[in-house]
Specification:
- By secondary structure, the chain is α/β, with parallel strands linked by helices.
- 36% of the residues lie in helices and 15% in strands.
- The protein has helices spanning 21-24, 37-44, 54-57, 65-73, 77-87, 91-97, 104-107, 109-112, 120-134, 157-168, 185-188, 197-209, 226-232, 259-270, 276-279, 297-308, 329-337, 435-438, 443-469, and strands at residues 149-153, 172-176, 213-215, 235-238, 244-245, 257-258, 289-293, 313-317, 341-343, 346-352, 358-369, 375-379, 385-388, 391-394, 398-399, 430-432.
- The longest helix has 27 residues, at 443-469.
- It is globular and about 75 Å long.
- The chain starts with 20 loop residues before the first helix and ends with a helix.
- The model has no long low-confidence stretch (mean pLDDT 94).
């Protein structure tokens, strides 16, 4: 092993080739090429095989990263993929959209020693694409069929992760989702240049082929009541995510487009759907001066989408500086390369519609750190100015929708109150996982919680069966 690994001293970090900014800003394809086998093995061999692997401890899924990096370096690719898939139901998704710079790669020991992190995400993507191409992704095949049925509300990352885990154990699983396609925000919220839709669709098809049922265009609470759903199944998982946009709280907010409305329209168009609000120009950035308000990953998705739609200009307005923004620094770098203008330390005060639409903004300065560790923005007196914008998009995050009639206790923020270890809610047999519990967060956390909630639901059903047998 020593001969194959720990090559970070003699071998520099090398990411997969990135397409030129001008070329990639003209389409919605992913911006990085894939590693070839030689490069993947070479970069995996840079791993230091630490005694305490901080990459693993900083991964929400606790993936066995050093193990599958070593196997990749040794050319044992199928074993490497199977090791990665053992803890992660969707490694091809995480390899693409996880903010590795804030998680595994940011914690990498050789990154901290200034040698440049192992390119964990790129190797993970290479492994999973190789696995799909070579037919190593095994179909779901439960060892036994169980009589109990489980309902899952939400076909996003948490719901899909739970569905796979439960179906593997033989449960009859039905997933209910409001959309007409499987994937939740993986399919409709995240742009193609980060996650091409066939990646999500083939994972969904694997679940269908394995016996998971999907009831689409089913908005629980409207199409069917949650009480009816609970009565139909032995246990239910709430994995709806959070879709309600946080308000801008500025005059004339009615003229501002919600980030999710904009991204869903763009993704639907990319999937071949007719979207009236896009066809009319209301949600099309072509030829317009776009202003996106916010500094998270959703804001980065919006600015980079607008650039690809042919916007005349794109400005991102954010009330803190770059060091204090919540989004991935890599995403900011990609956006800057693509010509996005960042207006740091700027906050909107109002929006002006009419013949000369604009965001009226003020300059901010950073004060003391808040509970998140980031410095609190404070308005600079007499610093007002305007940012012209024909299409103004608010990307300020998401809140939970009203679930007050679902029969479970909620937090003061409207999210579902669930036990942090068992994911059980106040209602017997009802569990909750993902953003609807923790608030808007990362896809990898939703996958982790969906996986672990499935294990907790299995334990609950087995305990019920044991009590009934006694």
């Amino acid at each position: 092993m020593a001969e194959r690994m720990q090559k970070f001293v003699s071998l520099g970090q090398n990411m997969p080739q990135k397409r030129a900014a001008e070329a990639r800003a003209g389409d919605f394809h992913e911006i990085h090429a894939e590693f070839i086998a030689e490069k993947a093995a070479e970069q995996a061999a840079r791993c230091a095989q630490c005694g305490v692997p901080f990459c693993q401890t900083h991964c929400p899924l606790q993936n066995n990263i050093p193990d599958w990096l070593r196997l990749t370096a040794e050319g044992r690719l199928r074993e490497a993929y199977e090791t990665a898939a053992a803890t992660n139901p969707m490694p091809e998704v995480c390899g693409r959209i996880c903010p590795q710079d804030r998680l595994c790669e940011g914690a990498c020991v050789i990154e901290q020693s200034r040698h440049g992190a192992v390119t964990i995400g790129a190797v993970e993507k290479y492994l999973t694409e190789t696995a799909w191409r070579e037919g190593w992704v095994a179909p779901l095949a439960p060892r036994m069929e169980r009589p109990e049925s489980i309902g899952i509300v939400g076909a996003g990352p948490a719901g899909l992760a739970a569905a796979e885990r439960l179906r593997q154990r033989g449960y009859r699983v039905t997933v209910y989702d409001r959309h007409d396609r499987i994937g939740g925000l993986l399919i409709y919220g995240i742009p193609n240049f980060k996650l091409e839709k066939d990646v999500v669709q083939r994972r969904a098809q694997r679940l269908i082929d394995g016996g998971v049922r999907f009831e689409l265009n089913c908005n629980v609470g409207e199409t069917v009541s949650f009480a009816d759903l609970r009565a139909k199944h032995d246990a239910v998982l709430i994995a709806t995510g959070v879709y309600k946009a946080k308000p801008l709280n500025a005059p004339n907010e009615r003229g501002v487009v919600k980030a999710l409305d904009y991204l869903i329209a763009a993704n639907r168009v990319g999937l071949g759907d007719h979207v009236p609000d896009f066809a009319s120009g209301a949600l099309d950035a072509k030829g317009r001066r776009v202003v996106v308000i916010g500094g998270g990953d959703t804001a980065m998705d919006c600015v980079r989408t607008a650039r690809r739609q042919g916007a005349a200009s794109v400005t991102c307005l954010y009330r803190r500086d770059r060091a204090n923004m919540p989004g991935s620094q890599r995403e900011v770098t990609h956006a800057e390369e693509e010509g996005i203008v960042f207006d740091w330390l700027a906050a909107p005060k109002s929006v002006r519609a009419g013949k000369s639409p604009a965001v009226k903004a003020v300059r901010m300065q950073l004060g003391q750190a808040d509970e998140s560790g980031r410095q609190t923005p404070q308005e600079q007196p007499g610093s007002s100015y305007e940012v012209p914008g024909d299409l103004i998009i608010a990307a300020l995050g998401f809140d939970a929708e009203d679930l007050s009639d679902w029969g479970v206790d909620l937090t003061r923020w409207g999210t579902v109150k669930a036990d942090p270890l068992s994911f059980a809610t106040s209602a017997p047999g009802v569990y909750a996982a993902g953003d609807i519990v923790r608030g808007a967060s990362l896809v990898v956390w939703a996958i982790r919680e969906g996986r672990d909630a499935a294990d907790a639901m299995h334990a609950y059903i087995q305990s019920c069966a044991k009590v009934a047998a006694e």
